[in-house]
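ESCALATION

Customer reports they have been waiting on this structure for their group meeting. Please prioritize. Original submission:
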Amino acid sequence: MKGRIWTVPNQITFLRLGFLPIFLMLIAYDRYRWALLVLVVSGLSDGIDGLLARSLNQRSALGAYLDPIADKLLLSSSFVLLAFKKQLAWWLTILVFSRDVLILIVAVVIHSDCRRRDSADLGLPAFSAQCLRQAYDSF
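Update from on-call: job pushed to the front of the queue and completed.
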């Protein structure tokens, strides 16, 4: 991955981040059809920027971080806003946030100093147990 910032895929991701306030205002003012249109365009732009990053060889470290952040912001904020407007159950919002937090914790554990040391021959179950133990020890 290269350190370029202003690649075409990153610009599309920045555009998707720009859609976020528009999307939230549309939901806040009960313009659900327009909000759905913005969400669909955002989803399509997410696919297009990934395709362009691979086909044009424009993968970047910024894009690797920014793209999932844009996705999480769009979906998480929509769940929260819809739950506040009583259009969506809070338990579902909490479930989605819990899943995202769990993914974040697993990513931190995997990217930390969690390596296969003595468990190389035992495979995935031993590796998973070792990572969980390390995560437990770090909290």
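Sent to customer with the following note: The mean pLDDT is 82.
Escalation resolved.
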